[in-house]
Every structure is written in structure tokens, then in C-alpha cells.
């Protein structure tokens, strides 16, 4: 534990130094990712070892109504989450309508990092002085915000797979077509392998697990359906996006079923995972941080659904942090240069990601949770992921059939 805390402290100090020292426009997104990652580290530390400190705050743990350790842990996570949410939500409001680099708010987005870090830290500290009723309201609001973030993740995945497919098709070489076929077949093999393993893990013999079987069979049917629709002559589809979405749906179902309560007989993993070890906690946290950070940054740089109308679509193939267009021209002011992505949506995605990560760290339960030792476990988490899988399937099918239904609109 001491080693873990030392590592977290070192990483936190590094992030603080890099953020406060001033970050250029080219790496602005990296700076925001640093603040977001630091908020997750702070939440986790308070959840694991810092929650008892809340017992000494009389306005939180009143003598007449003392709270359990589990309640304090969840409350600490949401207080940090609320401060981080307010920081990014405020920036999202400030950045509404920024379309070119002549806008003064363009400078606010890229500069003033010392001030931003101080404001971010103050917001988090101030959240430990607000009444419990506000935190409870934010808990409820976070469930809806997390659902929106999951939908954004799906859109990002669809955008990435179509971009990947188009990039290889444009090369117009036999080896790239063979590569597309190989990757597609590999993804389908992976999807059905995962489905087969789930039949073993989540349908143990001697138990009636019809619900789990239904989910697994439905996932396999969806995978077949994606391929049939994508390869239909009237649909301008491809096998690669269909295969990637299929393996993603299989993965989402695995995370959903593995999130079933540990005392549920149809969760075959419960025999070997009564609790979550520190190693599993670290691995789960790192996975969460990486996925959330990637989703937030990818959303901010997307040129297909989050870019302002004036931004060039051709910039989508550039590296994530290649923001040469955003540095602007020094000296005399010339013609307005459009921003390459929507600043407002960028901060909005971070705000929603903050809600999502807060729900993950508390297992999608409220302050009444009695099993805070388990991250992301419970029926709420299970059904959120099931609904995410269904939304993924619906969005992908709609992306294929929309050009046939809405013939008067242009699709890319």
C-alpha cells in the first residue's frame, strides 16, 4: 500500500508540475488530460485510505447521524467528482460558439494553466464544505451523465472503425484488402470465442440461467446480423466495422455479466473472486483511466461529429496532439483561422467522463452501498452495460440504413 501511495504521489506531483508550469497550445489537450487523471487519482486515494478523514468534518459526519465507512468512501469520491465536473462544465459553457482563433476565448482554452490549476484545486476543496443533499443530487445526476458518456463512446468507436476502413480502402492495393479481410475474420473469431467462454462462465450446469443465455445468444445473433446488413448490395457498408462492433458488443456483454452480484449463482466467476484484490483494483483503475482519457481526447479531436462547421474535415487523420492550426499566427491579425475541433464539446466530454468514472469507482450505487470493496459490481452496473450493448447495435445499424431512409441528406 505504501508503494502504491508513493507512486500515486509521484505521478500527482508530476502532473501538477507539468500543468502549472504552462502548457503550449499544441499540447493543451494533454494538460486537460493531466488534470482529469489527477482527479481520478485523488478520488481513488480518498476512497481507499482517506475516507476516514471525513469523520472529523462535523458538517459531513454529524454526531447525531454518524455514517458508515462505506458511505464516507462513496461520499468522498463524489465530492472530488463534483469539483472536477464543475471545472470542465464551466469551461464548456465559456467555450460555446468559439469558431475561429481570433476569438479571445481561444487563448483561454490554451493558456492560463497556473490559474486553471488553482481554480480546479479550489473547486475540489470547496466541495468538501457543501451539504450532503447537493452530493446526493449529483449522484443521481451522474447516472444520466454516465449514460450519455457511454453513448458518446459508441459514436467514437463507430467513427474510428469507419475511418480505419476508409484509410485502408483508399490505398487501393491488394495487400490492404487482404489485411482488411484478415482483421475482420480475426475480430469475428474473437467475438464468437468470447461468446463460447461466456456460455461456460455464466451458464453453470445445474442452474437456471435463462437470462444470461438470452443475452449471449442475442449477442451472437447481432454479430451475424451486422455482417448481413453491412454486405447487403443496397448498403454501403464494410465487413471491418461490422466485425469490430461485434467483438465490442461481446466484450461489453462480458463486462456486464461479470458485474453481476458475487452471490448470484449464474455468475460463474464468483467462486474465484469473492472480493477484489489490490492488484485487481490497480489493474481495473488503470484500465478505466486509459479508456476514459482516450474517449475524452478522441471525442475532442473528432472531425466527423464534434467539429464546428467551419473546421476542415481533412484534419481527422492528424495525430491526437497535432494542433499546429490552433497555435495561430503571431504578429498582425490576418484572416480568421477556424479551430480544428469544438472546444465546448471537448470540455463537455470531460465533464461527462467525470460522472462516468465516479460511478465506476462507486459500483453504480448510491451512498447506501454496503459493498464498496467491489468496483463496478451490481445489478445496476450490469443493466447499464446491457443497455450500452443494445444502444451500440442500434447506432451501428442506423449508420448503415440511414442513407437509405433519409435519401435527401448527405452522409459521409
Strands, helices and their partners?
Elements: H1 2-20, H2 28-50, H3 69-94, H4 104-110, H5 113-126, H6 132-170, H7 174-201, H8 210-230, H9 239-258, H10 278-301, H11 343-361, H12 379-405
Helix pairs in contact: 1-2, 2-3, 2-10, 2-11, 3-5, 3-6, 3-11, 6-9, 6-11, 6-12, 7-8, 7-9, 8-9, 8-12, 9-12, 10-11
Quote the average pLDDT: 76
Mind summarizing the main beta sheet?
none
Radius of gyration from CA coordinates: 23 Å
The count of strands amounts to 0
What's the SSE pattern?
A: HHHHHHHHHHHH
Helix content: 55-70%
What is the distance, rounded to the nearest whole angstrom, between the alpha carbons of the first and last residues? 50 Å
Could you describe the 3D structure shown?
The radius of gyration is 23 Å and the shape is flat. It starts with a helix and ends in a 7-residue tail after the last helix. The model is unreliable at 1-25, 273-277, 302-333 and 368-373 (pLDDT under 50). It has 412 residues and is mostly helical. The chain has helices at 2-20, 28-50, 69-94, 104-110, 113-126, 132-170, 174-201, 210-230, 239-258, 278-301, 343-361, 379-405. The longest helix has 39 residues, at 132-170.
Summarize the structure.
By secondary structure, this protein is mostly helical. The chain contains twelve helices and no strands.
Task: Supply database-style keywords.
412 residues, mainly alpha, 0% strand, flat
Amino acid at each position: 500500500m505504501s508503494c502504491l501511495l508513493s507512486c500515486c504521489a509521484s505521478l500527482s506531483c508530476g502532473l501538477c508540475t507539468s500543468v502549472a508550469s504552462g502548457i503550449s497550445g499544441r499540447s493543451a489537450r494533454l494538460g486537460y488530460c493531466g488534470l482529469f487523471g489527477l482527479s481520478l487519482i485523488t478520488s481513488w486515494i480518498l476512497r481507499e485510505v482517506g475516507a476516514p478523514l471525513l469523520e472529523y468534518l462535523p458538517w459531513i459526519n454529524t454526531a447525531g447521524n454518524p455514517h458508515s465507512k462505506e458511505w464516507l468512501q462513496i461520499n468522498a469520491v463524489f465530492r472530488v467528482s463534483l469539483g472536477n465536473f464543475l471545472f470542465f462544465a464551466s469551461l464548456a459553457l465559456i467555450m460555446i460558439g468559439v469558431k475561429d482563433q481570433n476569438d479571445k476565448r481561444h487563448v483561454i482554452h490554451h493558456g492560463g494553466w497556473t490559474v486553471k490549476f488553482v481554480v480546479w484545486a479550489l473547486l475540489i476543496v470547496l466541495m468538501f464544505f457543501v451539504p450532503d443533499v447537493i452530493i446526493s443530487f449529483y449522484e443521481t445526476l451522474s447516472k444520466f451523465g454516465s449514460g450519455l458518456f457511454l453513448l458518446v463512446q459508441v459514436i467514437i468507436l463507430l467513427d474510428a472503425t469507419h475511418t480505419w476502413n476508409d484509410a485502408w480502402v483508399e490505398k487501393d492495393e491488394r495487400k490492404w484488402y487482404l489485411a482488411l479481410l484478415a482483421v475482420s475474420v480475426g475480430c469475428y473469431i474473437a467475438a464468437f470465442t468470447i461468446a463460447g467462454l461466456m456460455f461456460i462462465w455464466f451458464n453453470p450446469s445445474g442452474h437456471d440461467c435463462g437470462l444470461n443465455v438470452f443475452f449471449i445468444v442475442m449477442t451472437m445473433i447481432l454479430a451475424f446480423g451486422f455482417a448481413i446488413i453491412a454486405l447487403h448490395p443496397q448498403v454501403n457498408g464494410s465487413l471491418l466495422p461490422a466485425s469490430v462492433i461485434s467483438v465490442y458488443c461481446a466484450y461489453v456483454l462480458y463486462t456486464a455479466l461479470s458485474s453481476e452480484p458475487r452471490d448470484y449463482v449464474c455468475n460463474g466467476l464468483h467462486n474465484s473472486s469473492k472480493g477484489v484484490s489490490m492488484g485487481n483494483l490497480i489493474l481495473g483503475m488503470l484500465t478505466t483511466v486509459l479508456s476514459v482519457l482516450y474517449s475524452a481526447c478522441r471525442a475532442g479531436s473528432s472531425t466527423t461529429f464534434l467539429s464546428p462547421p467551419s473546421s476542415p474535415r481533412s484534419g481527422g487523420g492528424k495525430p491526437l496532439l497535432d494542433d499546429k492550426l490552433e497555435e495561430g499566427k503571431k504578429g498582425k491579425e490576418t484572416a480568421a483561422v477556424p479551430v480544428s475541433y469544438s472546444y465546448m464539446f471537448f470540455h463537455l466530454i470531460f465533464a461527462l467522463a467525470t460522472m462516468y468514472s465516479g460511478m465506476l469507482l462507486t459500483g453504480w450505487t448510491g451512498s447506501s452501498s454496503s459493498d464498496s470493496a467491489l468496483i463496478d459490481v451490481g445489478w445496476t452496473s450490469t443493466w447499464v452495460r446491457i443497455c450500452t450493448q443494445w444502444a451500440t447495435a442500434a447506432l451501428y445499424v442506423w449508420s448503415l440504413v440511414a442513407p437509405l431512409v433519409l435519401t435527401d441528406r448527405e452522409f459521409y
